[in-house]
């Protein structure tokens, strides 16, 4: 019984353990079993941090709850990127690789899994094309401004000039703020879930119980502890991550895929559960909303960090990734516009994601 209780409270027990491990290993370069153990604590701290951010978001309510959750996830993502970039093998493309991986995960993996789960049960998944289409348009615009246009400016290389990077950062942040206000205030009904017959369902069931003041305060403390643990352990684990990828024969750029999968794991699971409850629109809100936040908040923060960090930001995508992004956008439009989708569309999205992962591992 005590073991079961401890398992249920893993998200409260793990951050302090991670902080203790960080204090004991700071400044070292662990390897072997110790590095593997720290990797588990790092992954657990990410999941715990997202969990506690969700608790705080549920207590605060929209729109500030969504903003708090997005900021917490952004801090985790940026912390992992910056600490990994600080290693001996600096990767100027790591930010781009991570953000692009987040786009591919949200638009293909999460959407594909959600459609497969729901359409497999009801035969056809139903959602709101207005809300989903608006979110998809925001993602496509953000991805183009931040990761496509840098390849076509007069500035040599896949980089922006400081002025261009500043414009992209401000535009990304402005579009994210507009997205949050649209989703939570002016057109909230566009994002409410519908059932298999197309009728609106009560969205209250998706939020669960409202956390108490005590639960919220505990989550605030655990969120701070998780963020510190994630950033610190990412720094300690930099050498082990690089050595592990080399041992597996994976390119250094695959770190971005690992970071994005780790950060978006909670959203992927939550989207699958929502789809199983016939809430595909909720799944799409998680998928497209995470993509908008990943670009709209991460790029502005990294733009500020780049002013004091020696490694340049290579944001422009390579030709193979440009092709995958274009295919993803086209398929996503065809999926979203009708407001309904079958297992075929789910399979198409999952195949695109599988192609992305395979080519990332074997470019």
TrEMBL record:
Its main location: membrane. One of its GO terms (cellular component) is plasma membrane. One of its GO terms (molecular function) is potassium:proton antiporter activity. Residues 34-184, 219-359 form the Sodium/calcium exchanger membrane region domain. InterPro entries: Alkaline_pH_Ca-Antiporter, NaCa_Exmemb, NCX_ion-bd_dom_sf. Keywords: Membrane, Transmembrane, Transmembrane helix. It comes from the Bacteria. Signal peptide: none annotated. It is found in: Membrane. The chain crosses the membrane at residues 37-57, 64-86, 98-119, 131-149, 161-181, 216-234, 246-265, 286-308, 320-337, 344-361. It holds the Pfam family Na_Ca_ex. It is a multi-pass membrane protein. This is Ionic transporter y4hA. It comes from Propioniciclava tarda.
């Amino acid at each position: 019984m005590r073991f079961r209780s401890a398992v249920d409270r893993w998200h409260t027990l793990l951050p302090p353990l991670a902080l203790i491990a960080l204090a004991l290993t700071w400044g070292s370069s662990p390897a072997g079993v110790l590095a593997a153990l720290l990797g588990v604590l790092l992954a657990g701290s990410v999941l715990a941090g997202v969990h506690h951010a969700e608790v705080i978001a549920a207590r605060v309510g929209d729109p500030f709850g969504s903003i708090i959750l997005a900021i917490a996830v952004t801090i985790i993502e940026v912390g992992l990127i910056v600490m990994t970039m600080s290693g001996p093998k600096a990767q100027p493309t790591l930010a781009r690789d991570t953000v692009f991986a987040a786009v591919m995960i949200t638009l293909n993996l999460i959407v594909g899994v959600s459609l497969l789960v729901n359409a497999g049960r009801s035969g056809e998944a139903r959602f709101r094309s207005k809300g989903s289409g608006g979110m998809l348009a925001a993602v496509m615009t953000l991805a183009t401004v931040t990761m496509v246009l840098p390849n076509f400016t007069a500035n040599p290389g896949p980089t922006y000039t400081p002025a261009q990077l500043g414009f992209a950062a401000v535009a990304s942040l402005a579009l994210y703020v507009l997205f949050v206000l649209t989703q939570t205030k002016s057109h909230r009904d566009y994002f409410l879930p519908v059932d298999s017959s197309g009728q609106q369902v009560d969205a209250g069931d998706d939020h669960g119980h409202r956390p108490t003041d005590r639960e919220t305060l505990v989550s605030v403390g655990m969120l701070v502890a998780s963020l510190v643990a994630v950033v610190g352990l990412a720094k300690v684990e930099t050498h082990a991550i690089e050595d592990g990828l080399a041992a597996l024969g994976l390119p250094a750029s695959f770190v971005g895929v690992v970071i994005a999968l780790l950060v978006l794991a909670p959203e992927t699971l939550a989207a699958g559960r929502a789809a199983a409850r016939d809430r595909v629109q909720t799944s799409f809100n998680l998928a497209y909303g995470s993509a908008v936040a990943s670009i709209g908040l991460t790029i502005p923060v990294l733009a500020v960090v780049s002013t004091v960090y020696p490694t340049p930001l290579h944001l422009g995508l390579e030709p193979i990734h440009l092709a995958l992004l274009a295919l993803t956008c086209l398929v996503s439009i065809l999926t979203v516009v009708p407001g309904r989708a079958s297992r075929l569309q789910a399979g198409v999205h999952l195949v695109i994601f599988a192609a992305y992962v395979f080519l990332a591992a074997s470019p």
